[in-house]
């Protein structure tokens, strides 16, 4: 089969090699899937650079944390799946290939009406947004919620989840066009951070009180400034620093404010049954109550260009490889 493999870590997409690789064989509790689409995530960039959960001795490795396709082989201890079934999976590795394996616990059926490109783009962003907002931040109806980087995959999912939960949503983006599109997706207020200081705008929009919840994924100065817009009792959840660092230990805050870090990988490792939450989002997308925004698709052999585009941070929504 054709696959993208990393034989040595490096700072640029040049380390991605378009290779011939053996078709993986599923274990007793695994499925073999003929991949039709694999979504890109910022974790893929960390993997490429050698900063994400893989030891050099384990190379070569195939990146791609989530993918969708058709089951072609079922492990002997896998109930509920069958050959020919359309599925989406999030095993963490292996998706940049024509075939990939995933544990049954990391796999869900895809309903008719949701194509593979949309399905592949869903697990990381929807599950991250849901568990970060609902489980970690304890978001409630009528909360005022600030979602940073609204045009990212997580940002777009989080806006819809927060609105679905009854929150008032404020979000940030880098262009007026992105702000307009985010309002179409449900954001109540948008802030173009290249024109306005988001701290001043949040305080203006909330009559000086601040917001109850911040979902933060940029890091660095944006993280620090986001702490300043928390209302008393407000909660900031960081899901990683795409641009700048975030503190290993969240700072202590006054007036009941709280900051925390959230990792969907760690959460699912501790709560594997939580992956089933994806079923609800697949149905919401099928019924056109939620949207999955795909910015661009690239063929597998153009994975270098796809990662370069992701790293440029000009995209709106998800980037997906197709086989």
Give a verbal description of the structure.
- The protein has helices at 42-49, 116-120, 123-136, 153-164, 176-184, 198-205, 220-227, 264-270, 278-286, 303-312, and strands at 2-6, 16-20, 30-39, 66-74, 86-89, 99-103, 107-109, 144-147, 168-173, 189-192, 211-216, 230-238, 258-261, 294-299, 318-322.
- The protein is α/β, with parallel strands linked by helices.
- It folds into two domains: 2-122 and 292-322, Medium-chain alcohol dehydrogenases, catalytic domain (Quinone Oxidoreductase, Chain A, domain 1, Alpha-Beta Complex), CATH 3.90.180.10; 124-266, NAD(P)-binding Rossmann-like Domain (Rossmann fold), CATH 3.40.50.720.
- Strands 3, 4, 5, 6, 7, 14 and 15 form a seven-stranded mixed sheet that branches. It has a six-stranded parallel sheet with strand order 10-9-8-11-12-13, with helices on both faces. Strands 1-2 form a two-stranded antiparallel ribbon.
- The protein is globular.
